[in-house]
Amino acid sequence: MAQTDVLLTKQPAPQTVPACELAPKLYDVARNTGAYTSSGLATVGFRTAKYLVDEWFQNCYSHYYQAFADRDQSERQRHESLQLAAETQALAQRTQEDSTRKMGERLQDMHCWKSELQHKVDELVAETDQLLAQKQRLESSLDATAVPFSIATDNLQCRERRQHPDLVRDYVEMELLKEAELIRNIQELLKRTIMQATNQIRMNREQKETCEMDWSDKVEAYNIDETCARYHNQSTEVQFYSHSTKLEESASTPETWVKFTQENLCRAERERLASVNLRGLIDCILRDIAEDLRLQCDAVNLAFGRRCEELEDTRLKLEQHLHKTLREITDQEHNVAALKQAIRDKEVPLKVAQTRLYQRSHRPNVELCRDNAQFRLVSEVEELNMSLMMLKEKLLEAGQSLRNLEDTRMSLEKDIAIKTNSLFIDRQKCMTHRARYPTILQLVGYQ
After folding, report:
1. Which of 204, 222, 241, 378 is most deeply buried (CB count within 10 A of its CB)?
2. Which of 185, 196, 183 minimizes the C-alpha distance to 134?
3. What integer pLDDT is reported at residue 45 of this predicted model?
4. HSE of 411 in the Cβ direction (CA atoms, 13 Å)?
5. Of residues 406, 404, 403, 399, the one with CA closest to residue 335
6. CB–CB of 261/150 below 8 Å?
7. pLDDT-derived band at 36, boundaries 50, 70, 90
8. Which residues neighbour 398 within 8 Å (Cβ) at sequence distance 6 or greater?
9. How distant, in Å, are the alpha carbons of 174, 181, 231 from that of 236?
10. Three-class SS string for 425-446?
11. Tell me, what's the pLDDT at 348?
């Protein structure tokens, strides 16, 4: 607030020139003491007699003196009035010029702070727009993480349809569980960051509104002071305002006025820097989560590839064993048939030998002799029975071996079917579904 260098509390005393004192003139007044005097009578205040000549001259002289004294006093007053008018005119002009200069300085100060506020508002607007773009990236990234999470959960559910003994907790499942947990943690982090960005945007807008209100007040005050600075003595819009010098109790001082704007600018700059730091943090978060998700995706894909190779190799070996088993089954079936034929081939000689022994047992009397032929027939029967027993045992063993081979064949075929099913699930279901995994640009929120 502009202040004058001289504070006027009362009307300034005019400069006076001391007047020279006139020499008094003494007159001899003739007293009326004659026979017609009225001295001592009760008619005091009433003049009944005529004036004396001396009294007449005295009266004229007194009028002369009074006229001279009045003229001299009037001349002094005119001189003092002209001097006072000139001094007050000069003082008023100096005071008005000083007030105008102070108002000009005030206008410069307001223009400076107004420009600072406008610049800060522009910075806050630009920073808020950039933070809004970062928030949109966060939301896009959060939406993009829904696809990997659905892929991971779908892979886990598909692999639950594997059959025993392939329903194992292998490293593929461990990587899938790790991927699902990573995506859940990333989603929680993105939600918290979005909330933080929302709060920062609100704070930026609040500080922008505060600076805009301060800027608006300064613009209004600037227009008022600019209008006041243009007033001059020939202006037609000026008039008397008797109570205009009264200061409002709520009026601020230059120090509090500057402090108020500085605090607004400091708070705005603090929020702007916080917004800049938050944008940098958002960039790091989006970059890190994209890298983490792609690394985990590659780890899962590598685990799937290894598992599919293992399943393919195992199935190939099972098929080879099945092929060998089928050939062995065929050979064993031929062996069983050969054993049965050998048993049948031994039954006819046994019948012949037993028939011979039976017929020779009917020899009469002393002819029933244990001769060499008899011993040989008995040994022949025993040999044939031993051969039949051995052949039948071998047939039993061959039959058991054939049944074992059949069981093995069924087991191999079942295991091959299980491995085929596991391969179909991992390769056709899971790996094909994982081809829909979002790109890095989608994960960082650019698409």
Report:
1. 204
2. 196
3. 52
4. 9
5. 399
6. no
7. very low
8. 332, 335, 336, 339
9. 90, 80, 9
10. HHHHHHHHHHCCCCCHHHHCCC
11. 86
